[in-house]
Amino acid sequence: MSLDKKTLLDAVKEAKSKSGQKKFNQTVDLILDIKEVDMKAPEGKIQAVVELPHATGKPNKICVIGSGELALKARSAGAERVIERTELDALTGKKKDLRKLGSDYDVFIAEAPLMPLVGRVLGPVLGPRGKMPVPVPPNADIASVIARNRNTVVVRMRNQPIIQVPVGTENMGEEELVDNIQTVLRLVEGKLKRGLKNIKCVFIKTSMGSPVKIKP
């Protein structure tokens, strides 16, 4: 399969040309059709977080779960939501509130000592969404952790041999989008037994546009 930079650039340009005129900044997705993988084996259960080299135009909304100084610093660093222990305790069993929390935020970061409680209260909601919190020590440079996680994406393959990952938005430059795509491809290559040979087809598409197929 040819996944060189020129091929990807041409595909990104074509996908953007097929996006149509919309009144919002459409997401650009990378879709991988995987072949010859045993979905019951560990390689069929891919789940990883990767930091993209370029901001996507839609930075992740971050929720920090912490206490004391870490919570204060998280607020100062611009976290969209900070949940302290008492609030976390109060969320126990509130399924509607927990589902909303899981939908409203893209990345969760938790103070390590709170992880057992976080797992018990939030695990049933965040686990299936691939959003289990990133644990950090109480003395972590939380501002740096938040900054790094603004541009992360979750790469998942569950039940079906398909991986779909947002790699940016249509107003980004083609070169930046290709850099982000190649970052995801490198991660997936390392997770699959035969690397890129396990990829049947690659598609690049905008939210409302037609997919562009890169053929083997």
How would you characterize the overall build of this protein?
With 216 residues, this protein is of the alpha/beta class. The protein folds into 2 domains: 5-57 and 152-214, Ribosomal protein L1/L10, rRNA-binding domain (Ribulose 1,5 Bisphosphate Carboxylase/Oxygenase); 62-149, 3-Layer(aba) Sandwich (Rossmann fold), CATH 3.40.50. Helices cover 35% and strands 24% of the residues. It is built from 7 helices and 10 strands. The chain has helices at 5-17, 68-76, 85-90, 95-104, 115-126, 142-149, 174-191; strands at 27-34, 47-51, 62-65, 81-83, 107-111, 134-136, 152-156, 162-169, 199-206, 212-214. The strands form 3 sheets. The chain has a 4-stranded antiparallel beta sheet. Strands 4-3-5-6 form a 4-stranded parallel beta sheet. A two-stranded antiparallel sheet has the order 2-7. Helix 1 packs across helix 7 (174-191). The protein is globular, with a radius of gyration of 19 Å.
